[in-house]
Amino acid sequence: QVQLVESGGGLVQAGGSLRLSCAASGRTFSTDVVAWFRQVPGKEREFIARINWSAGSTYYADSVKGRFAISRDNAKNTVYLEMNSLKPEDTAVYYCAARNEVVVRYDRWGQGTQVTVSA
Question: Across-strand partners of 98?
Fold first, then answer.
């Protein structure tokens, strides 16, 4: 069974940094696109960033471009989200998700990790 496990969330002051991790078990990311999303209660889930595992190409939402960076560690089969210059509006539950690179729908999701940014 494929599992995605996020870690690294927590409480940080505005302007601070956090690094989230998404580790996969059960299969490797070798042909996947791995993405980060976030969700605030009562709002729709928001796409943050994605990385094509094989090509290493990345894409970001405008709301985080220049502040967040997505990366991968092949040896650890882990995707990271480095978050800098955090703002209170970045507060949300952050989820990692994965899909095969030839499909559109993300079909594997982690349990989420809470990020809280205080003013």
Answer: 34, 108
